[in-house]
Amino acid sequence: MPLPSRSPGSGGPEPTRTRALAALLGATRARVLLRIAALHAATTNDLVQELAVSAATVSHHTGVLRHSALITTERSGVSVRHALTPLGESLLGAHGVPAGRPPPGGSV
Questions:
Q1: What residues have CB less than 8 Å from 67, skipping those under 6 apart?
Q2: For residues 73 and 32, what is the distance between their CA atoms, to the nearest angstrom?
Q3: Termini Cα distance of the chain
Q4: What is the β-pairing status of strands 71-76 and 42-43?
Q5: Can you give the chain as a three-state secondary structure string?
Q6: What pLDDT does 58 receive?
Q7: Regions of the chain where pLDDT drops below 70
Q8: Phi, psi values for residue 9, rounded to 5°
Q9: Beta strand 79-84 with 42-43: parallel, antiparallel or unpaired?
């Protein structure tokens, strides 16, 4: 998983903090959480396209994040939208990743 780099003054997460988040959650799960934060809310389809993983992989990881109270999931017809909970925002904030701010270069 390429980790976001931080350039001076970029306001993005420090690589060490992002690695700590990946160590805590797992690399793919951390990427899913970070993309949901960067997109403010994301559909399963958004995450499949953004992360280049299968829908089954996204569903598995969003399920774990939901059961851990880090995200919420709402279904609207065939669309499923995921958003951070206050706990998810706090976790990212503790790792130097302000919710809603994409990492520099837009990659996670």
A1: none
A2: 13
A3: 8
A4: unpaired
A5: CCCCCCCCCCCCCCHHHHHHHHHHHCHHHHHHHHHHHHCCCEEHHHHHHHHCCCHHHHHHHHHHHHHCCCEEEEEECCEEEEEECHHHHHHHHHCCCCCCCCCHHHCC
A6: 96
A7: 1-14, 99-108
A8: 75, 5
A9: antiparallel
Specify the pLDDT at position 20. Answer: 87
pLDDT of residue 81: 96
Give the pLDDT score at 71.
Answer: 97
Which tokens go with 16?
């060490």
Q: Residue 50 and residue 44: Cα distance in Å, rounded?
A: 10
pLDDT computed for residue 17 by the predictor: 73
62, 73 in Cβ contact below 8 A? yes
